[in-house]
Amino acid sequence: MIKILLVDDDRYLQEVYMTLFPLGGIDVISQAYDGIQAVENYNRLDEKPDVVLMDQRMPRLDGLGATKKLMEIDPDIKVIFLSADDTSKQTALDVGASIFLSKPVQIEFLFNTIKELASK
Amino acid sequence: MTPIDKDYLALFNDFPDGLFRIDLAGKYILVNELYAEIFGYTPEEMLAKDFDIWKTWAIEDEIRLLLSEAKKRDIKGIVVRSKSRIDTMGYIELSIGVSRDDNDVITGYEGRARDITLRYEAMNSEVEARRNAEFLVDLMAHDLTNIHHGMQMPLEFILGDSDFPEKYRKPLELSVAQLHYATDLIKNVKRLQRVLGGGNNLSTKNLYKELMDAAATAQRAYPAKVLDFELMFKSDEHWVLADNLLVDLFFNLFHNALKHDREATVRIKVEAKQNADDNLIDIHIIDYGPGVPDVEKKRILQRRMGAKGSGIGLTIVNYLLDKYDGSIRVVDRVPGELQMGSDFIVTLRRGM
């Protein structure tokens, strides 16, 4: 199963992802609700995720800040930015996100994007 | 007092702005009634021994800089904080220069002032109100988009299950369609916010590029459909006068075509033709969809603020055309044959 780290401050969305992703063959190995927690969780994991699913607007540290820090830890990390704020698209790609998706996204499309990126 | 002096004094006192003269230390030597009124004093009070500009102009450091600068050049229309007799703060628009004696030596300063407190506060209130409105729209758009995302994914997942009972499929599809509509509405509100908030900086735009970008964006908005898009002119052939939102204008027209055409492949052809006026160009956006009923043709292209949400895309089109001094009309693709599709004719000014 593909392993992902979920980063989003919206707890309802986290619950939706946790319900759907296993049904799509994706294993959520860690959840974070802000950028600082995302970096902390990533560092603590023995087995690293194949993909990080990153929201932008979060408290303490936003998606851009978290992606920058994760890129410093692992330049090969694969981050999918999934945000309701499409003004951050270019900046997200500039700081190292592999893909930027604007919410809302069709679930099948999201599954396929995660799987394709994980297989690269 | 000579007659000329009397005339001068009358002119001085009747002048529509406050007039003043101060010495190098900042003490008032001469003020007219209007100037004294700005601060709530009489001219006599302002000309008293212990009265100076520091009782009327606030922010000492700013004033010292201002007077220093006025020695080098006349200053026109600078806004300065003011203090009134009852210690309320306000704003005056000040023009000030030096006064000199017969030997050209600077003896003080003279100028005029206008009380702009109400205007300034209204302007600041407007700026703040706009900022608040933008913040609230942004906040609501962001949070609603997240909610739609959370609702859409489970519903689409269920619809994707081939074992899902067929009799419940249609109601669920209707719900998902409403969610898509709500998402489009939010995106269009944000676009309209940009259209209404933007300035009026028009420049020359490559028509081919703008249309291609708009088509690509429209295709991404409808991944389940295929947009068969054809441009009937060359990439460097036509230039128009518009701004960075031109792509939104075309996007909304393509989006409407994709939305209303029930076919899996939606065909749009774009032609550009010379208008009878040499300075204008007619851009024909031709679709093969269900057409626009005659009763709707005029109405939908007049949509402006206050219209209901279902036409916000065309509201954006109309506002942008107002900005570009352009126009739009719609006719049947095949005259008299409504069901054969539409020809939206967008007229824009040619760019140099």
Report on the structure:
- The complex is a heterodimer of chains A (120) and B (352).
- Chain A is an alpha/beta fold and 120 residues long.
- Chain A has one domain: Response regulator (Rossmann fold, 3-Layer(aba) Sandwich).
- Helix content of chain A is 42%, strand content 22%.
- Chain A has a five-stranded parallel β-sheet with strand order 2-1-3-4-5, with helices on both faces.
- In chain A, helix 3 links the parallel strand 3 (51-54) and strand 4 (79-83).
- The radius of gyration of chain A is 13 Å and the shape is globular.
- Chain B has helices at residues 3-14, 33-39, 43-46, 60-70, 117-159, 166-197, 207-221, 246-260, 294-300, 312-324, and strands at residues 18-23, 28-31, 75-83, 89-100, 106-115, 203-206, 226-231, 239-242, 265-274, 280-287, 327-334, 337-349.
- In chain B, strands 2-1-5-4-3 form a five-stranded antiparallel β-sheet. A five-stranded mixed β-sheet of chain B has the order 7-9-10-12-11. In chain B, strands 6-8 form a two-stranded antiparallel ribbon.
- Chain A binds chain B through residues 10, 12-13, 16, 19-20, 23-24, 57, 84-85, 103-110, and chain B through 141-143, 145-150, 152-154, 156-157, 160, 179, 183, 223.
Task: Give the SSE layout.
The complex is a heterodimer of chains A (120) and B (352).
Chain A: E1 2-7, H1 11-20, E2 26-32, H2 35-44, E3 51-54, H3 63-73, E4 79-83, H4 89-95, E5 99-102, H5 107-119
Parallel strand pairs in A: 1-2, 1-3, 3-4, 4-5
Helix pairs in contact in A: 2-3
Chain B: H1 3-14, E1 18-23, E2 28-31, H2 33-39, H3 43-46, H4 60-70, E3 75-83, E4 89-100, E5 106-115, H5 117-159, H6 166-197, E6 203-206, H7 207-221, E7 226-231, E8 239-242, H8 246-260, E9 265-274, E10 280-287, H9 294-300, H10 312-324, E11 327-334, E12 337-349
Parallel strand pairs in B: 7-9
Antiparallel strand pairs in B: 1-2, 1-5, 3-4, 4-5, 6-8, 9-10, 10-12, 11-12
Helix pairs in contact in B: 5-6, 6-10, 7-8, 8-10
